[in-house]
Amino acid sequence: MTEKKYWDKEIETMPRDKLEKYQLRLLKNEIAFARKGSAFYKKYLPDITLKSIDDIQKLPFVTKQIIRERQQAKEPFGDMVAVPEEEIVYISASSGSTGVPTASPFTAQDFDDFIDCQARLFWRSGMRPKDRYIHALNFSLFIGGPCVLGAQRLGALAIHAGSIPSERLLNFVRQFKPNWTWTTPSYAWYLGETAKNADLNPAKDLSLRNFICSGEPGGGIKETRENIEALWGANLYEYYGLSDIFGACAGSCTEKSGIHIEEDHMIVEVLDLKTGEPVGEGERGEMVLTTLKKRARPLIRFRTGDIVTYTDEKCNCGRTHKRLSGVHGRTDDMLIIKGVNVFPSDVEAVVRSLDFLTGEYRLIVDREKHLDTLAIEVENTKKTIPEVQDILATAIKARLGVKADIIVHKPGTLPRETHKAKRIIDKRTKVWG
Fold first, then answer.
1. Which residue of 36, 142, 191, 423 has the lowest C-beta tally within 10 Å?
2. Which domains does the chain have, with CATH numbers?
């Protein structure tokens, strides 16, 4: 029997004109459902006729701050919820890294859609029933926890390891010999270093050959991806998700040519950071998402804060949904240095292209005489300090268009993170611009 190529061929390969008609029908239903069931949306959303997908621009935005305020106004779930509490069967919560943690509620159907989407993403990346998957994400209210059920749905052997010490995780890898796992790019690198410190060669002594990475831009940075793949002798697949909708809602296929977004579950807008107008393919903008099937808490024009580029071009794999060609950072991570927008991901691409550096880095932003300054901390393995400073400063200037001071350390000086790496130290007492 021939193995199927797609988890849901009809949906994943739907021509874009047909897909947009399908989305419009779902959008009308989603808005009607939200206005009927949610006290917030009944007042917030104008009663307008949507004739095309473009008409979504007539609707107001929802932000994380609005979600937080509405939750606090009517605890525990807020007045954006569109179903009775007895229909809510699961909640996750955001990390609260940029504010008070917010709950994300799911009905039984929402949760089933979530898990089926995870199975679709896993299948797209090449996971099959013969594979073994070790799930090393946190289960404590983290939306990534239940994603393991997607591996089980497609028939893979799923090992629920959770967030455990690296040494114990490596013991499980040696014992059960999984060939798939999911983590952040920073932790994939850290875990490899931990293995080497235990006199293990990750590419030869361990079984992991497929890494799913999310939570940071690194998985989509060519230099970072190639370094992790070389360290482990593995393939790296980048995923994107957010707790406000459900786990991963986009992921790369075996072509590894961008991140396919599940457009049967959401409408994607990419908007100019200054004007709010849609940007073209390949241009950076903030991603705005609108749910199409979410019942517990629909999200209409949710500003994710993520800076992305996209393409509508059909992938070589045959899938037609919009692809993110880059997740470059967050609006709240963006630094403006002497009028130039700087993202940590841009610095990372330069640092990890230089083989005499360990790949770890940190940015220090300060202000001198009303002008913002940038310093970059790195770890050197081979060259003299002046050589490192000259080569890296020149490369940063060429790529980013800004001058940076280079601070050189010995290997192992900078902190290693087991979750999302903290790349910025901001010493400015007041930030503007």
1. 36
2. 1-330 (3.40.50.12780), 335-426 (3.30.300.30)
